[in-house]
Amino acid sequence: MCRWLAYSGTPISLDQLLYKPRFSLIDQSMHSRLGVETTNGDGVGVGWYGADDAPALFRGVGPAWGDVNLRELARVTRSGLFLAHIRASTGTPVQQSNCHPFRYGRWLWCHNGAIHGFRELKRDLVLAVDPELYPSISGSTDSEVMFYLALTFGLRDDPVRAVERMAGLVEQTARAHDVPEPLQMTVGTTDGERVWAFRYSSVGKSRTLFYSTELNALRALHPDFALIQGLSEETRLIVSEPLGELEGAWQPVPESSYGVIQKGADELGSFTPR
Amino acid sequence: MCRWLAYSGTPISLDQLLYKPRFSLIDQSMHSRLGVETTNGDGVGVGWYGADDAPALFRGVGPAWGDVNLRELARVTRSGLFLAHIRASTGTPVQQSNCHPFRYGRWLWCHNGAIHGFRELKRDLVLAVDPELYPSISGSTDSEVMFYLALTFGLRDDPVRAVERMAGLVEQTARAHDVPEPLQMTVGTTDGERVWAFRYSSVGKSRTLFYSTELNALRALHPDFALIQGLSEETRLIVSEPLGELEGAWQPVPESSYGVIQKGADELGSFTPR
Amino acid sequence: MCRWLAYSGTPISLDQLLYKPRFSLIDQSMHSRLGVETTNGDGVGVGWYGADDAPALFRGVGPAWGDVNLRELARVTRSGLFLAHIRASTGTPVQQSNCHPFRYGRWLWCHNGAIHGFRELKRDLVLAVDPELYPSISGSTDSEVMFYLALTFGLRDDPVRAVERMAGLVEQTARAHDVPEPLQMTVGTTDGERVWAFRYSSVGKSRTLFYSTELNALRALHPDFALIQGLSEETRLIVSEPLGELEGAWQPVPESSYGVIQKGADELGSFTPR
Amino acid sequence: MCRWLAYSGTPISLDQLLYKPRFSLIDQSMHSRLGVETTNGDGVGVGWYGADDAPALFRGVGPAWGDVNLRELARVTRSGLFLAHIRASTGTPVQQSNCHPFRYGRWLWCHNGAIHGFRELKRDLVLAVDPELYPSISGSTDSEVMFYLALTFGLRDDPVRAVERMAGLVEQTARAHDVPEPLQMTVGTTDGERVWAFRYSSVGKSRTLFYSTELNALRALHPDFALIQGLSEETRLIVSEPLGELEGAWQPVPESSYGVIQKGADELGSFTPR
């Protein structure tokens, strides 16, 4: 169980979302309200896009609430697109290479959930990863294997279809091993231009995921709230659980669906493992 | 806010208390039921006595629940007297030198609570430490300063009086700085022979502390419970919050009092800062 | 590049070998004299056998020279059979799951050297691991894959043959990928009764490895040296580079050979990948 | 013993100096050529100035050579003024609060060297720190106490005089405790506008310190070297030991002297403890 957020829009300093709101992501590392576990203290990571082509990564193995370097970094780093994640291990070691987001080229990936029976299924899943991609797997989590499967199935060309095929393979492999209802996931992934978010579970009861209300609607509700006045109309957030306390700020992502944040109209569609 | 336990009696492996009971100390690192904070993830420590003269220390900076080395150590280490502690920082850095127990010669010390206004009071308190002892202070916590003040005031000769004088100095120093109700503490300390436990707060509402019921009474209540059948009559535990689920196993240490676990009759007395 | 030692004989406290000798293993973490790298600061580990069936492990990710917990542990832990290792990463992450020794059941394994071209060869090598064993791989090093290959090939029944088959597979896989001279290794492994040591490299120029002279010969040379007087005749050490400064104490393990330390006569044989 | 560098001039990405040159600072963490110790693996830190008023800090407790977060940060962070430091502990704990640079308001401070007899002298030195500043001391090193003494003696108004008074107090305190030749130091400090560097030791044999040749002279020597063509005339470096391999690039800072890097003419003067 973990928590994550994705931000896309007007460049802001990372601490605006990681630290400053009530119920901020870093608060959730100690006191999550909607998580399966209330504590997410097994590491933290943030990936952000800037001037450079490739996203930058910071990943720490201690609890997010006490990471002094992250606090400094978040204060002085501005970005218009970033993913952040706090980890609650489901059994794999607490180490930097298991912290999200994972990165491959321009892509970042973070995950909340688990593949049940992963110990049994791992070998078959890893075998399905493109041998060219295989050597880049550096940690031991289910989440990273999901990322490399999605890359194998075309994440860079057709992300929705690639994640659907990944989910399909996980479920098919689980059936072969008699593991019922194996997949539980919310996933956020981005190429630095668009952000895709997925909410799905084999059991049909997925971890929570929310996206932010359109900003002009939100401004109409809260004309006095300074932070949101300075943000562009296209600014969007996707979060495991709501930050802050603004009424009307959040919409749940429906079960078995995906969303795309992009220039122009965003997209919301249904998600079906293939 | 922290949690701690002290064990004295028939030698057992450390994991019997740190890991195996329901609501074990390590469980409390993630889910404390009686703590001011529910999470105690800012470090862990255990000090134990064995063949050697000096107690051995293990202290880790990550959350106790994920410390693989501690789990191994607890499995293979047996001791008849040990202190263990899980930390929730009240502001000082998360680092090994701030993890309890603290050690000086044969003495160990652990603390749950805080000196309020410690930033303001620290210089005066540190100045009151015996200059011979001063260089041995290696961390930056209020808890360690309390230990060195107690050592200065004769902990090794008359522990109760020394801790009372320490508490008195803290309160007097706070008055001089207009800091009200400065001290909140449960303290466990031992020389490898006896264990002293203290429960006190300036405000008269101290953190919880419990001691174990005498074993023959407990055996009468639970004749079928294997673990306690093998322990000597003199075996005792002091804990911040009850471990396990045995009815009748725990007695609260009264407000403003101290207890001594020792060969022969234990001792319970009232505690008054001097 | 790494350094390791194996000890078998009269139980001693670990610090007798890890800390006390001149050129001790912990000294070598900062100043190795014979290593390819002079610094071995990417982690440390020790595995030891005691009362318990399974060996205990301590593994730290910081440099051995500064590991305070290891120093404490080594002071109070006595064992008649232990392996210790200091790591210099050849590229894989510095994390606990990559620290040696690796453990499976009663077996421990440590390695100095590398599989060249491991990124390219890894997938094929991992595929050759017994699917039953595969889920227990928890880190990302070549060393751990070598261990699981040896387990796959019968380490628990015929260690020499299993390690020869492992080396053979590595060389055969490398040939298929046009990777020349892939294997460089000294390996120590034990089941808690006997210790096997291997020295081999595809290029025929292996990392150094030494075993200790028989104790009665050594005592004759150094009648005044207290430490060795108290050790049983069967006490043996295997080390990457000599500890201490006793003349005549060390014999090099020959190229392409293996040794077995065991009750009764030790064994030395030639090593040929199969 | 440690190594540090200070950069002032045309904004560059940190990795231009921390990673890219031969004999870069990060290389020196494993292989220092001029240091008293060849290994500086007890932590790393960098402080830099940017848009914000206060400098940002990153400090890691592991060896610099393996710090993945620092590598990322250095790649994407540009600054026109920064200090970086790699640590070799002289006995105080390896922990973040002991990593340089230290920060107070807009000021940064780093140190290579030691106060000999620091355990004995520490109490008297700490007592001399302004009580208003005292609570901001967060670690346990001699280096940080030197910083707070300099702040006490007016670092923010007259840095050279303040550091001279600090050195004078250290030497006077040492005399009172019969500690001979107590101070060994190169110090770099900055307020974000100017950089002061000091080289001094009581024994008159100070650790090495170099400053970069004026850029137009260096360009005349190396017209083909791309990196230096793009830097402003006022760009300067101060380093514990030379980076790179450019002939004529470095001048030693004389014994018992200080230098100031600033807009307009730099300054070099003699240093006398007061």
Question: What is the topology?
Answer:
The structure is a homotetramer of 274-residue chains.
Chain A (H helix, E strand, L loop, with lengths): L1 E12 L1 H4 L6 H6 L13 E5 L7 E5 L7 H9 L1 E10 L14 E3 L2 E9 L2 H10 L14 H11 L6 H18 L6 E8 L4 E7 L8 E3 L2 H7 L4 H4 L6 E4 L10 E3 L4 E5 L5 E4 L4
Antiparallel strand pairs in A: 1-4, 1-10, 2-3, 2-4, 5-6, 6-7, 7-8, 8-12, 9-10, 9-11, 12-13
Please tell me about this protein's structure.
The structure is a homotetramer of 274-residue chains. The model of chain A has no long low-confidence stretch (mean pLDDT 93). With 274 residues, the first copy, chain A, is of the alpha+beta class. In chain A, strand 12 and strand 13 form a beta hairpin. In chain A, helix 4 runs parallel beside helix 5 and helix 5 packs across helix 6. Helix content of chain A is 25%, strand content 28%. Chain A is built from eight helices and 13 strands. Chains A and C meet through helix 4 of A and helix 4 of C.
For the largest beta-sheet of chain A, the strand count, sense and barrel status come to:
7 strands, antiparallel
Shape of chain A: globular
What's the CATH H-level homologous superfamily of chain A?
Aminohydrolase, N-terminal nucleophile (Ntn) domain
The SSE string of chain A, one letter per element, is EHHEEHEEEHHHEEEHHEEEE
What key attributes describe this structure?
alpha+beta; 274 residues; 6-stranded antiparallel sheet; homotetramer
Describe the structure in brief.
Chain A is α+β, with helices and mostly antiparallel strands and 274 residues long.
